[in-house]
Amino acid sequence: MELISLVGLRDTPLSIDEVTAAVADPKAGGTTFFVGTVRDHDHERGVRALSYSAHPSAEDRMRRVMEKVVADTTVAGRPLLRVAALHRVGDLRVGDIAVAVAAAAAHRDEAFDACRRLIDDIKTEVPIWKHQDFTDGSSEWVGAS
Protein backbone atom coordinates (compact mmCIF):
# COMPACT_ATOMS: atom_id res chain seq x y z
CA MET A 1 0.00 0.00 0.00
CA GLU A 2 1.32 3.41 -0.96
CA LEU A 3 1.48 5.75 2.04
CA ILE A 4 1.33 8.80 -0.22
CA SER A 5 -1.95 8.08 -1.91
CA LEU A 6 -2.48 11.41 -3.70
CA VAL A 7 -0.23 14.34 -4.52
CA GLY A 8 -0.77 16.98 -7.16
CA LEU A 9 -1.19 20.46 -8.49
CA ARG A 10 -4.46 21.15 -10.26
CA ASP A 11 -5.72 23.99 -12.40
CA THR A 12 -9.28 22.82 -11.85
CA PRO A 13 -11.40 22.93 -8.68
CA LEU A 14 -10.22 20.59 -5.93
CA SER A 15 -12.45 17.79 -4.64
CA ILE A 16 -12.59 17.13 -0.92
CA ASP A 17 -14.25 13.81 -1.79
CA GLU A 18 -11.18 12.82 -3.84
CA VAL A 19 -8.85 13.62 -0.93
CA THR A 20 -11.14 11.77 1.50
CA ALA A 21 -11.21 8.67 -0.70
CA ALA A 22 -7.44 8.77 -1.15
CA VAL A 23 -6.75 8.34 2.57
CA ALA A 24 -9.60 5.97 3.41
CA ASP A 25 -8.32 2.88 5.18
CA PRO A 26 -10.18 0.36 7.36
CA LYS A 27 -7.27 0.40 9.83
CA ALA A 28 -7.59 4.15 10.38
CA GLY A 29 -9.00 5.24 13.71
CA GLY A 30 -8.29 8.88 12.96
CA THR A 31 -8.47 10.85 9.72
CA THR A 32 -7.75 14.57 9.72
CA PHE A 33 -8.11 17.18 7.00
CA PHE A 34 -7.11 20.73 6.35
CA VAL A 35 -8.89 22.66 3.63
CA GLY A 36 -7.54 26.11 2.81
CA THR A 37 -9.92 28.48 1.09
CA VAL A 38 -9.54 31.90 -0.49
CA ARG A 39 -10.72 34.45 2.05
CA ASP A 40 -12.10 37.90 1.30
CA HIS A 41 -9.34 39.78 3.14
CA ASP A 42 -5.65 39.73 3.93
CA HIS A 43 -4.09 41.99 6.56
CA GLU A 44 -7.26 44.10 6.74
CA ARG A 45 -7.37 44.61 2.94
CA GLY A 46 -10.24 43.31 0.85
CA VAL A 47 -9.29 40.52 -1.56
CA ARG A 48 -11.14 40.27 -4.86
CA ALA A 49 -9.34 37.25 -6.33
CA LEU A 50 -5.96 35.58 -6.49
CA SER A 51 -3.80 33.42 -8.68
CA TYR A 52 -1.32 30.70 -7.72
CA SER A 53 1.78 29.97 -9.78
CA ALA A 54 4.11 27.03 -9.22
CA HIS A 55 7.67 26.23 -10.17
CA PRO A 56 7.96 23.14 -12.42
CA SER A 57 9.53 21.28 -9.48
CA ALA A 58 6.62 22.04 -7.11
CA GLU A 59 4.86 18.68 -7.35
CA ASP A 60 8.11 16.76 -6.80
CA ARG A 61 8.92 19.01 -3.85
CA MET A 62 5.45 18.40 -2.41
CA ARG A 63 6.01 14.65 -2.67
CA ARG A 64 9.38 14.99 -0.87
CA VAL A 65 7.71 16.98 1.93
CA MET A 66 5.10 14.26 2.25
CA GLU A 67 7.75 11.51 2.26
CA LYS A 68 9.56 13.27 5.11
CA VAL A 69 6.38 13.66 7.15
CA VAL A 70 5.56 9.97 6.66
CA ALA A 71 9.11 8.93 7.58
CA ASP A 72 9.16 11.13 10.71
CA THR A 73 5.67 10.37 12.02
CA THR A 74 5.18 7.48 14.35
CA VAL A 75 3.50 7.18 17.70
CA ALA A 76 4.40 4.12 19.80
CA GLY A 77 5.92 2.60 16.67
CA ARG A 78 2.70 2.86 14.63
CA PRO A 79 3.25 4.65 11.32
CA LEU A 80 0.81 6.74 9.41
CA LEU A 81 -1.47 4.80 7.12
CA ARG A 82 -1.96 7.34 4.32
CA VAL A 83 -1.47 10.99 3.40
CA ALA A 84 -2.80 13.08 0.52
CA ALA A 85 -2.31 16.65 -0.69
CA LEU A 86 -3.62 18.74 -3.57
CA HIS A 87 -2.90 22.42 -4.32
CA ARG A 88 -4.64 24.66 -6.84
CA VAL A 89 -2.79 26.71 -9.41
CA GLY A 90 -4.26 29.35 -11.67
CA ASP A 91 -7.03 31.85 -10.99
CA LEU A 92 -9.22 31.44 -7.90
CA ARG A 93 -12.08 33.45 -6.42
CA VAL A 94 -13.10 34.09 -2.83
CA GLY A 95 -14.44 30.84 -1.36
CA ASP A 96 -12.54 28.52 -3.71
CA ILE A 97 -10.49 25.70 -2.22
CA ALA A 98 -6.79 26.48 -2.62
CA VAL A 99 -5.28 23.48 -0.85
CA ALA A 100 -6.48 20.24 0.74
CA VAL A 101 -4.36 17.86 2.82
CA ALA A 102 -5.30 14.77 4.79
CA ALA A 103 -3.69 12.18 7.01
CA ALA A 104 -5.05 8.85 8.21
CA ALA A 105 -3.54 6.89 11.07
CA ALA A 106 -4.44 4.23 13.58
CA HIS A 107 -4.94 6.94 16.21
CA ARG A 108 -5.98 10.58 16.12
CA ASP A 109 -2.83 12.09 17.65
CA GLU A 110 -0.56 11.01 14.81
CA ALA A 111 -3.21 11.97 12.23
CA PHE A 112 -3.57 15.48 13.70
CA ASP A 113 0.21 15.94 14.01
CA ALA A 114 0.88 14.75 10.48
CA CYS A 115 -1.87 16.87 8.92
CA ARG A 116 -0.63 20.01 10.68
CA ARG A 117 2.94 19.33 9.61
CA LEU A 118 1.88 18.58 6.03
CA ILE A 119 0.20 21.93 5.51
CA ASP A 120 2.91 23.87 7.37
CA ASP A 121 5.76 22.23 5.44
CA ILE A 122 3.99 22.52 2.07
CA LYS A 123 3.50 26.25 2.66
CA THR A 124 7.15 26.82 3.61
CA GLU A 125 9.00 24.35 1.36
CA VAL A 126 7.07 24.03 -1.90
CA PRO A 127 7.65 26.76 -4.53
CA ILE A 128 4.09 27.98 -5.01
CA TRP A 129 3.45 31.72 -5.16
CA LYS A 130 0.26 33.72 -4.68
CA HIS A 131 -0.67 36.91 -6.53
CA GLN A 132 -3.51 38.73 -4.78
CA ASP A 133 -5.82 41.31 -6.34
CA PHE A 134 -7.31 43.65 -3.77
CA THR A 135 -10.65 45.44 -3.87
CA ASP A 136 -8.85 48.81 -3.88
CA GLY A 137 -7.29 47.97 -7.27
CA SER A 138 -3.82 47.17 -5.94
CA SER A 139 -2.13 43.76 -6.03
CA GLU A 140 0.83 41.93 -4.48
CA TRP A 141 2.86 38.75 -4.73
CA VAL A 142 3.06 36.58 -1.62
CA GLY A 143 5.81 34.01 -1.17
CA ALA A 144 7.88 35.30 -4.08
CA SER A 145 11.15 36.79 -2.98
From TrEMBL:
Leading EC class: transferase
Reaction equation(s) it catalyzes: 2 [molybdopterin-synthase sulfur-carrier protein]-C-terminal-Gly-aminoethanethioate + cyclic pyranopterin phosphate + H2O = molybdopterin + 2 [molybdopterin-synthase sulfur-carrier protein]-C-terminal Gly-Gly + 2 H(+)
Biological processes annotated in GO: Mo-molybdopterin cofactor biosynthetic process
Gene3D superfamilies, per the entry: Molybdopterin biosynthesis MoaE subunit
GO MF, one example: molybdopterin synthase activity
Entries under Pfam families matching the protein: MoaE
CDD domains cross-referenced by the UniProt entry: MoaE
InterPro entries in the record: MoaE_sf, Mopterin_biosynth_MoaE
UniProt xrefs under SUPFAM superfamilies: Molybdopterin synthase subunit MoaE
Keywords assigned: Molybdenum cofactor biosynthesis, Transferase
E.C. number(s) listed in UniProt: 2.8.1.12
Pathway(s) of this molecule: Cofactor biosynthesis; molybdopterin biosynthesis
Any coiled-coil regions, as ranges: none
Domain of life: Bacteria
Protein role: Converts molybdopterin precursor Z into molybdopterin. This requires the incorporation of two sulfur atoms into precursor Z to generate a dithiolene group. The sulfur is provided by MoaD.
Subunit composition and interactions: Heterotetramer of 2 MoaD subunits and 2 MoaE subunits. Also stable as homodimer. The enzyme changes between these two forms during catalysis.
Membership in a protein family: Belongs to the MoaE family.
Protein name: Molybdopterin synthase catalytic subunit 1
Native source species: Halostreptopolyspora alba
